[in-house]
Structure formats: C-alpha cells, structure tokens
Amino acid sequence: MIIKKYIFKDILKVQIVTLIVLLSVFLCQTVIKILGQASTGSIPIGVVSEMIIYSLPSIGFILLPMSLYVGIIVSLSRMSSDSEMVVMRSSGLSGVSFMKIGLLLALISAIATGLNCLCFMPVSNQAKAALTDSSQNNPKYLPIESGKFTEFGDYTLYIHGVNDEHGDKKLGQVFVIKTTKARTMNSPEYEFLSATTGHMSKDRSGTQWVVLENGSLYKSDGLSPELEKVDFNTLSIPVPYDSEEETVDDSLQSVSTIDLIRSTSHAAKIELQWRIAPIFACFIFAIMAIPLSMINPRQGKFARLGPAIILFVCYYLAILSVRNLLNSEKIPLYPGMYIVPVIFVLFVLIPLNLDKNVFIRKRKKQ
C-alpha cells in the first residue's frame, strides 16, 4: 500500500510540474498572439490581460491529457532506469497494480478535463467574444490619449488633454484635420477644426462619435490663401469601424454543452464530440503510457519517449482528420470521433499490453 501511494504521488507530482511547464509555453504563444492583435488595433490594450485569462481553458483542452501522458512515462521510466521497478516487482507489485494506479490518475484527469471542456471552455469563449464586442463598441477602449495624434479614417485628431471619468472620456482642446479631394479639381481640400471641449458618444445603431463642443471649422481648397470659417456649438465626427479586423466568433464554441446536447444540428453534434474527445484521451493515454514506460534499466530514462510522442501525435491527428471528414459529411455522424479511441484500443493498446511471457510459455509447452 505504501509503494502504491509512492507511485501515485510521484506520477501526480510529475504531471503537475509538466502541466505548469507546458502551460507556460503555450501561454507565451497566446500572449504573443494577443499582443500582436493589440498592436494592430484589433483589440484594445486594456483588455489584453482578460483575453489571456479567457484563453486558459482552450489551452487546457490538450494539455490536461498530455500532462497525464508525460507524467506517467517520465515517472515510471525513471523508476525503471533507477532499478526501483525491479524492487517493486520483487515485492509483489504486478503490472496490473501499475495499471490500476494509472487508471485512477486517468479518472481524476478525465474529471478535470470534462469540467474544463464541457463547462469552462464554452463559458470562457462566450466571455471572450462578449469582451471583444464590448471593446469595439465601448468608448473607453478607443485609442485616444493625451498629447498623441490619432487616426480616424480621413480625420487626424490631436487632443491636448483626456480625462477618463468612470469610463467616459472627456476631451479638452481638440484639434482635427481632414483631407478630402475637391469636387472640381484634383487638389486636396483641407478642413481644420478646433474645439475647447469634447466627449465620446454612441448612437442607437452602435456607431461611435467624437462630439466636439464650442469650436470653429476652417476650410481651404489648397490653392487660395483664403479660409472659410464656420463657428459651431456641437459637431460630431464618426469613428470608422473596419469589419475586416473584427474577431471571428465561432458561435458553436460559445454554446453551452447542454444546448449542444439538445440541438439537432449536425455541426452541434460534431462540436459535442470534439469536447468529449479529450475525456476518452485521458484513459487511452494512461493505458498506453504504462507499457511504454516499462523499460530496461540499461536503456535510459527516455528510451521510448520518441515512440510515445509519435503515438500521441497520431492520436490527435486522427481526431482532427475525423473531425474534418465529419464537417464535410464524408463519414456518418456516428460513430464519428468515437471510432478513434476504439481503433487505438484494438491496434495499439491491446498489442502494447499483451504479456509476452504468456506466449513464450505456450511455445515451450508445445
């Protein structure tokens, strides 16, 4: 019993460390991607931290089964390399005992994976989409800062002071330059605006406006030294919205699992299978990792790490391939993605876990 607890704790410790390391690596890639979107103006810099947090469940989709797989292989391979496995087997610990420990860890990981994929992931995707939409339609996220030039389509704004009070941006001493083509000539026509105050607003259609107050409008045709001056009390400038930079929102990723179960849509059923796939993967990888970690002490700790990585990649490539075939309706919805675990059980897990000594004894008897 003490030996089983030792094995369980050692695998769990390696699994947690592996999860932290892999999460850090994948999180760095996500941070770089989100910062790239922020640098191009697709998302405001103020929502970067929230976007990173909402991306964690999607990263855990593959990392939770992977951490279990790596944890079992690394931990048991170390025990085999250090000859601890020989002592454990001599004390009566069989391969079935290792399999039971692996399946227990797989059950714990499967519960965590199920909660992540079925509950947390759709909620985080929905919150991420709502945050993206809010950042594009909320005035407080517009890229307006004191003492900087801001491009709004044909307009160039320079604001001397910006006071952000409770999410409402109050503008002070605003200067606006607009360049357009003249109607009768190819020479540009200039418009220069100055206003003492201003603020941001949004109409019923969701269009953002920069509202200028108490200012003057100057017009020039670019040829004559004369300027046309018009004083105004209120003038609104629309903030252009580039639909090409809008973040693509896959609605199925944001739909709750319960709604997917109730739905009769073909795409919804595929999304449901995609969320369930990592749960089966936990048991597949646990059963596959046990025989792969049983190595000869002379082989080294990472003797079978290469084949283990190949099998892991093959499993997920098979899942992705079946998903693409389902989306193109080239194969039936059932068994669908569930066929991949069945194939791995028949052609990988059973051959790996067969006791070779049994066949040797049968040959000797014959």
From TrEMBL:
It is found in: Cell inner membrane. Pfam families: LptF_LptG (PF03739). The keyword Metal-binding does not apply. The chain crosses the membrane at residues 12-32, 52-76, 97-115, 272-290, 302-322, 334-354. Keywords: Cell inner membrane, Cell membrane, Membrane, Transmembrane, Transmembrane helix, Transport. Its main location: membrane. GO terms for cellular component: ATP-binding cassette (ABC) transporter complex. InterPro entries: LptF, LptG/LptF_permease. One of its GO terms (biological process) is lipopolysaccharide transport. It is a multi-pass membrane protein. Part of the ABC transporter complex LptBFG involved in the translocation of lipopolysaccharide (LPS) from the inner membrane to the outer membrane. NCBIfam families: LptF_YjgP (TIGR04407). Belongs to the LptF/LptG family. Component of the lipopolysaccharide transport and assembly complex. The LptBFG transporter is composed of two ATP-binding proteins (LptB) and two transmembrane proteins (LptF and LptG). This is Lipopolysaccharide export system permease protein LptF.
